[in-house]
Amino acid sequence: MNLSSGYPHDLLRNGIPYDYPRLRNNKTADIIILGGGISGALAAHYLQNAGVDCILVDGRTIGLGSTCASTSLLQYEIDKPLSELAGLIGREKAERAYHLCAKAVNDLEQICNEIKFTNFQCCDSVYFAASKKDIAFLEREFTARKQTGFPVVWMEAGELEKRYRLAAPGAIVSAIGAQTNAYMLTHALHQYHINKGMEVYDRTQVVQIDHHKKGVTLFTTDGYKISCKKLVYATGYESVGYIDKKIVKLVSTYATSSEQYEDLGSSWQDTAIFWNTADPYFYTRATHDNRILAGGRDEPFSSPQKRDVLIEKKSRQLEKDFQRHFPAVPFKKEFSWTGIFGSTKDGLPFIGNYEKLPNSLFALGFGGNGITFSVTAAEIIKDMIKGRNNADLSLFSFARI
User: Fold this and answer.
1) Are residues 258 and 316 part of one domain?
2) How far apart are CA 105 and CA 273, in angstroms?
3) How many CB atoms within 10 Å of residue 131?
4) What is the mean pLDDT of the chain?
């Protein structure tokens, strides 16, 4: 599947920082992780730290699927607002999902410290009203989060303009948020574990997967065989090809980054990530190299060709969106890109066993919380492989649909 195109900012800035070998012989391991993006890298991190023997295989050059197109906002907020999610799955489950995402943000900070990855910044998360008509909803959402114990404050228009130069009628400001570089974090995780003996292979396309009672066997285009006891699918949106249930709605999403500025000002640099109540929502943040990134303007996914021809039009619209919300902040677009994005009915990921594929474990962090959901998935999968019960498994299982 063609997952992204255009000129992703993180890929342009960092290029291909490391080389990984292509698989050239048969392999056997307890666990094979299929997919070397951020989800696979985090799954490998948790398994390796737990002493589980695993090998990671990717069909592309590492990171060149969805990961290089990620805009790397880290939020505890799920695409489905807490007040709405409670109506869908019950208040207790909804609150647990939100708290797990908050925990994942904190866990990611600890992981980055452990592997000495420095491109991680904690910041506020500002969820603002796209228009005055959204204020009533946003106030209900504020109350739901406050009652759940999240550190949130309500800000009116004047304070938003003074603190963030944001033109909006109101916003929920949360103290739990962060930003990173998913592409380079993926490489950092792989390098950390390669140095400890883990095997990572890219450009190794798997063309056949046989699930059986005693394990799983994979066959590559080069004729090699990979055997394992359990297979972890960390293949993101391409996982729809392995599952006969319709679990995700695919859309095309767009992003653009500005020219580099000498000084963005204290109200922007490393202080907040922003997103709004529009559908599809607009979001923006500063980057590590003093640019501004803006994204949104989703369209129903039909084909890579139809998606790609809209890049220039969508980038101009995003530039205008930014200027409407931040009229005092300069923005001149420079790099633009597009990718596949997916959402589930309840806004939650799919994690764990898929009964029609014996000895399979899925880590599918769909939605705007793909990175934080991948942390949760990695922890649950680690527990499953180690034979431990995880009370959160049922919240994200395939059985819920």
Assistant:
1) yes
2) 14
3) 11
4) 93
